[in-house]
Amino acid sequence: MSADPLIPICSGRAAGAADAAPLPQGVRGVLFDMCNVLYDDTVWRRWVLQLLTHMGLHTNYRCFFRVWDREYLDDVHRGARDFCDAFGSFLRSSGLSRGQIDEVQAACQGRRRHLEANARPLPGVKTTLGRLHAAGFVLGVISNSLYPASVLTERLGRFAAGKLFSTVVSSIDLKRTMPDAVCYHAALKAMNLSAGQVAFVGHDPAELAGAAAVGMATIAFNYDPDARADVYLARFDELPEMIPAARPVAAAG
Question: What is the DSSP string of 6-70?
Answer without folding.
Answer: PP----GGGGGGGGPPPPPTT--EEEEE-BTTTB---HHHHHHHHHHHHTT----HHHHHHHHII
